[in-house]
Amino acid sequence: MFKKFTNGCVALVNKYLPDPFLFAIILNAIVFIAGIIFTGQGPLTMIKHWGNGFWSLLLFSMQMVLVLVLGSAMAQAPLFKNLLKKIASLAKTPGSAILITTFIATLACWINWGFGLIIGALLAREMAKQVKGVDYRLLIASAYSGFLVWHGGLSGSIPLTIASETGLVATGGALTTPIPTSETIFSPLNLAIVISILLLMPIVTRAMHPTPDKTITIDPSLLHDEPLKEYEIKTPADKLEHSKILWLILLAFGFIYIVYYFSENGFNLSLDIVNMIFLFVGILLHGDLRRYIDAISEATAGASGIILQFPFYAGIMGMMTGAAEGATSLAGVISTAFVNMSNDNTFPLFTFLSAGIVNIFVPSGGGQWAVQGPIMMPAGSELGVPAAKTALAIAWGDAWTNMIQPFWALPALGIAGLGARDIMGYCIITLLLSGAIASVAFLLL
């Protein structure tokens, strides 16, 4: 029965899911029409909101691109590639390959979402080379499913944003002091959700593996790795590019500042310090400035979809948050509807569900916070719900529906050579699993 349901989801997605960019355009049209219907604003006003929002996320876009590129470059270091080969060698059957890939990808995404996406995809490719009879689509879907935990992890943008003074702006006055990560990322509530997903999701993805007659494999020869590049050092410029002295000086600058940052701020992670850590750890592991430059060049290709699509999602955000004077925005209509049906016990659950809906149209942690923070945080404060719990509910709602939003799957799909429709059917199952886990946690814990 479970495999039949999974196969049905896969067939449905293969038939109806368009390219991720076209998906974004369709969402633009849906929000445009919904804004006219539910907020009473005219077409020209909605177009103005769209245009005003179109370039509003450039700073955050750059931060997200850096998280992806720096995490990807770090994952290309020989140390990690050899480690992935050893991990893949542990799998002896298709089921164990899916199990291990899901677990490792989830753990890596908790550490850093960009790093986890790439590590998961690379591990899935390595599994496809070494394990006969494993479904390649499910391998990549399992790797992407690890992305579910990113917003409860060390690179979660909402927990990191509210840990700094600049993160207080989008709370509508509900917060006057930063919330440390000990109350969000490292809270019992958040860790309970993360651990539950980390333990249960590998079992579920393993159970999704198709029967042999429906399994789609890939020829391992198509997944060969490029040999480690050899450099000829002939000119003074070549010597500078491979200089160990410059490499050491740069590492000294970076790690001295990182140590200083934590000595001054404690273990409060921001997006900028996460990026700095992965930048300098990547430089360290590559062991050569020229080699690291080339790794960055390769990693930037995976960010092309983000660069193209982010302005259109920023435009959606403009329409979601735009409102005429004295009127309510579309995001306000959605969020307020859930607030009105909530009490102090159900508010975190309904915040999570509303965030999941909003995330389909604004698949950005920072965008999600800008849309819902000013509405949900004051409402939670009035109901007596801890601010950290409300913020976590928004964060997990944002992460949850990424399983049916192909935007963030683009880097993994680029590595795999697949399309979104190849994996999204399987991701519907992980959406249902994670939704159930988070709903129970926010309602009962």
UniProtKB/TrEMBL annotation:
The chain crosses the membrane at residues 20-40, 52-77, 97-124, 136-154, 185-204, 245-263, 269-287, 349-371, 423-444. The keyword Transmembrane applies. It comes from the Bacteria. InterPro entries: SCFA_transpt_AtoE. One of its GO terms (cellular component) is plasma membrane. Keywords: Membrane, Transmembrane, Transmembrane helix. Signal peptide: none annotated. This is Short-chain fatty acid transporter.
